[in-house]
Amino acid sequence: MKYLRLLRLFLSTSIQAEMEYRLNFVIAALSSIGGLAGSLFGLSLFYRGNDVLGGWVWDEALVVLGFFTLLQGVSASFLSANLSKIVGYVQMGTLDFVLLKPVDSQFWLSTRAFSLWGIPDLLLGTFIIGLAGTRLGLGPLDYLSALFPLLCGLVTLYSLWFMLGATSIWFVKVYNVTEVLRKTLEAGRFPITAFPAAWRIFFTYVVPVAFMTSVPAETLLGRGSAPWLLGAIVLAATLSVIARSFWHFALRFYTSASS
Amino acid sequence: MTMLVHKIRTFLSVYYAHMLEYRAEIVFWMLAGLFPFILMGVWMEAGAKGQFALSAVDLGRYFVAVFIVRQMSVVWVIWEFERQVVEGRLSPFLLQPIDPVWRHVAGHLCERLARAPFFVALLTAFFLFQPDLFWLPSFQNGIAALAAMVCAFVLRFLIQYTFAMLCFWTERASAVQEFWFLLYLFLSGLIAPLDVFPEEMRDFALWTPFPYLVNFPARLLVGLETDLLRSFMILGAWMVVFFVLNRLLWRLGLRQYSGMGA
Amino acid sequence: MIEVKGLSKHFNVPIKVSGLSATIKHFFNRQYRRVDAVKALDFSIKEGEFVGFLGANGAGKTTTLKMLTGLIHPSGGSVNINGHTPFDRKKEFLQDITLVMGQKQQLIWDLPAMDSLRINAAVYEISKGDFDERIEELASMLELKDKLTSPVRKLSLGERMKAEFMAALLHRPRLLFLDEPTLGLDINAQSAVRRFLKDYNTRHNATVILTSHYMADITTLCERVLIIHEGGLVHDGVLSELIENFAPFRQVKVELGSDVDKETLSKYGEVESLNGAEARLTVRRDELTEVVSKLLSEQNVLDLTVTDPPIEEIIGRVFQKGSVS
To answer: Could you tell me which chain C residue has the CA closest to the CA of B7?
Structure first.
């Protein structure tokens, strides 16, 4: 309960802080719309020379793009806003204050900030999925079934990101590493089957982008296969446990900025 | 004259040393710039299975060239400038008898130098992994591509530095840059060569500055057929436009800056 | 050297609000208010003078300084420095001045200070011979020689400030603007910076204009002080004059041979405190000699001292009263 109350407070203060930059908000919304238009255009190029992309017809590929947009929204609103700040806390020594609060430090660091920037993407992603789903004649149950793999994908992404953030205990300039992760996620725009074999292996086993967009999309389309779904669950569960213990491990090396 | 040479040498040597301090970051920036390789995968696969204007191998090479062009024309001046304005550190530089832009230029040039070894290593590794894609451009194409890349860098720097001027009026001008980046992303040829665009779209794009930042130099590098004269003329025209706009905004911006209390 | 006439500056500042609903309203309809930061200043400064700018936070010191350097354009009035209008930022003008701000550095953070110094030498077109000679001179004045080759981020705050001074003075400016140059430094570093500034001032007959929160900076360095209060000039003169104007009273401390009552002492002046045989009196300055001689002849005085009230107190009174009269 306390954690829910904190969450609400964090949310409202963050929104107030963001409202100060009004032009930026308008631009963020425009950026999202423009970004989506560009993504649609980019995707359509593949269908000028072929009917399918990695075996996915246009509307199906749209679902993948929808999940990707949703993911971007979550990244901008929650992940990036919070986890990029860990570096700052460590550098300035303000992590001391966080650690001394009677609140779980991982919770604090992961939820403290909320950025409005991701909202347009969240809305647009949902809209695209709904649009493509309607055209494919999907029912409410299909959407519901996709929620779970989506959640698994988000947990996976969050855990990876949080672990990268935690490395800032040792390495000060970790921001650039999260940027690399972010750029790699771009692969999630396309169905995993659209890649050549070597790429597919990389995006499944090294940076598991496949589990973040393709797997939820497959499930939504009623093509989910048990091994993939199981993989998503195991991956999410394992990574979140690892992330948590990794954080506690990292804290042992925290020296608290001295100067 | 000798004073000028001395100035240039001092700036370059100091900023090269500065960039070497950021080796680790530079490697990560480079890794974050691997986006073209993601698209290469999708496009090569699509090119092998469908009917496109370019073959799978040409598509593959095109994206290698895109990577090279992008690495050679990285620009971040707007973020640096924004920090200087927000933190008030621009003021002391304004009181020096040299335009502050030269510090940024020196930094950008030296960064390229510091990046070079990692860049070569990465390309070598890639071609070892995909030897079928390896190629060498002809001498003329290589020279033209080099010239085009230099121009692409200059134009990109001019554009971003022009947007940086907006820092004088708004607190986070880099948002404007991010919006512009979207157009860049989709019209420059970064996500796909302009050959696979619908015709009207391509004709339109070729009048904008975007294709000359990526598509044009990349095509020259791969050795695809290109209208050199026309391309360089449009490129030059955009350079003039942004240069004039930049100087105008700089002047207005300084007045505005002083209005904010410098 | 510096002529300032009717100099003024006003800003329009957005009004900040708090609370979510107010923020949303503010988002759509931003309100501004006009702030007069500097109001019609008149003064002139001669070559070689060491002038202190005093004022509470937000009194307009920094704004004035920035108008004098040409960073900001005045809303009204004029500044003339050696025939230049600062805002034009002509090369000859810039070669002659420097600005040091206590908490904003121009040195490149990750590199040794020497590298930034080399950049500045190139910018100001200083020859190799001059460069070496000046580095030698400044480094020995500042006792910084062995620190010039370690990265700036590894220097202590005091060392960093000294290095900033080297960068700022390498081109031997004849006019120095210093905005809180000792801010945040420890006592030793503060006095080192003060000694250095005094030294530089006499050695090169440089004009120095300084703002500071630390009274010691002002009392040890500045012959002349300008006091700015709410954007206007309330005092321009030597420090001692300020004391005359604002402190028409002196404190007389006496120690008598035996206990004395308050009534006895009241006829000499206002009794501030009385503790047995020790007392503190406040006496009007023009009556001081008379009172002291009366005290000495009529009472059994063991010890007597006359002091000014502390300068901080005087300045504080100036800020409160806001005017000389």
So the answer is: C122
